[in-house]
Amino acid sequence: MKRFAFLLVVVGTLAGVVASLALASGHAAAPIFGGTLPPGYRDWKLISVAHEEGNLNDIRAILGNDVAIKAYREGKLPFPEGTVIARIAWDYVPSEENNKVFGRAQSFVPGPAPDWYLQFMVKDSKKYAATGGWGYAQFNKDGKPADEAKLKTCFPCHEPIKARDFVFTRYAP
Amino acid sequence: MKRFAFLLVVVGTLAGVVASLALASGHAAAPIFGGTLPPGYRDWKLISVAHEEGNLNDIRAILGNDVAIKAYREGKLPFPEGTVIARIAWDYVPSEENNKVFGRAQSFVPGPAPDWYLQFMVKDSKKYAATGGWGYAQFNKDGKPADEAKLKTCFPCHEPIKARDFVFTRYAP
Q1: Contact B52 A108 (CB under 8 A)
Q2: Predicted-complex ipTM score
């Protein structure tokens, strides 16, 4: 067991070094996660939920990797390196089947995926120093990443919430 | 590794048998989970989210234990024995801090916990045969379980959705 665990650590560390070298030599604006979805994000723990009205008109869940959840629960700010926050949004639609049972229009649930289906914030203070230490990514329902022009609109919107390390979502207990 | 995994399976199975015996010998109307919160539910994976208008006026997350998540992802109905579905509800409140950034009232987030903060459905076809094979539980923010009269209102409301094994929530991908 111990030898196996040690091997894992060594391999993990080497992989990290290789990845860091690759990142350091790459262009600063390279897409986070190499333009693919971070594996397993749909299994992450829940941070909170929200409804956005207006043009977005979506209902959303905010999930976090283990680093994110630990920091949230301990109230730790700024978020540690390696924090990843995932935001899943669905069109905000009435549930006809629920409302039929309740006898009134009361229940709103997730519908189809909008263009801004998946968004991620990744904490890497060095790599993303120009945007408050966070990298931003967006994917549509087909896993296609948003283009660079789109992603440039992320940080200006998050900038006013600098006092909470640029993160809007609070933890819902 | 293998021996350790085997031991875990054996211990897990024995624990299950002991728990089943304890349940079988208990009174049918005994509160599920023995009137206490199921440990670790806040770490469970996300099934979906919803907003209920009207008297409830809450925003909610629906989580599932591993049995529930597997069944949902495989589209399996009825839900297998041991399925537990958790519903966390928070008062539906506007986020002043988010809205200040957006320049308009657009963002709604979880507020304080209402009386119906936590609800659970537990699948045990024998124990809860009288209520479609599901036991129901509710807890307030202090972990206090709802009284029996309150819990008797659960099943009549879920009964119309029998075709989906009495479960309203669909999985949000």
Answers
A1: yes
A2: 0.83
